[in-house]
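Researcher: I'd like a candidate sequence for this fold, 118 residues long. If you have to choose between options at a position, lean toward the conservative one.
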């Protein structure tokens, strides 16, 4: 999970240079823990949102900003290995919010075995 949140926080800083406030919120909802990372940066085009977690995908608004398009795909994979999910909401020019949802009970043991074998 350290890799996941390092990626989300570094992206928030990288894509919001003119708005340095990054907001992190964590709370419980039903049987899940949710962690949200929000910035007030350049945002993402609406038509790019469904592709944000694809390997090597870079949003149109990221032109001229260093990156490989691997980080969010890796974050999604790691979160799913913990039986969680990740979502994104964004408005171009106004900022982006990533929401990580993880079960309070932790991952199922079958996923733990796969994770340890990898």
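Model: Candidate sequence:
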């Amino acid at each position: 999970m350290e890799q996941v949140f390092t990626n989300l926080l570094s992206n928030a800083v990288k894509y919001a240079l003119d708005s340095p406030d990054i907001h992190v919120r964590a709370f419980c909802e039903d049987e899940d823990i949710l962690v949200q990372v929000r910035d007030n940066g350049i945002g993402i085009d609406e038509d790019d949102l469904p592709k944000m977690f694809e390997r090597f995908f870079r949003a149109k608004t990221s032109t001229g900003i260093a990156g490989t398009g691997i980080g969010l795909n890796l974050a999604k994979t790691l979160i799913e290995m913990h039986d969680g999910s990740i979502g994104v909401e964004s408005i171009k020019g106004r900022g982006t919010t990533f929401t990580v949802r993880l079960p309070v009970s932790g991952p199922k043991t079958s996923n733990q075995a796969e994770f340890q074998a990898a």
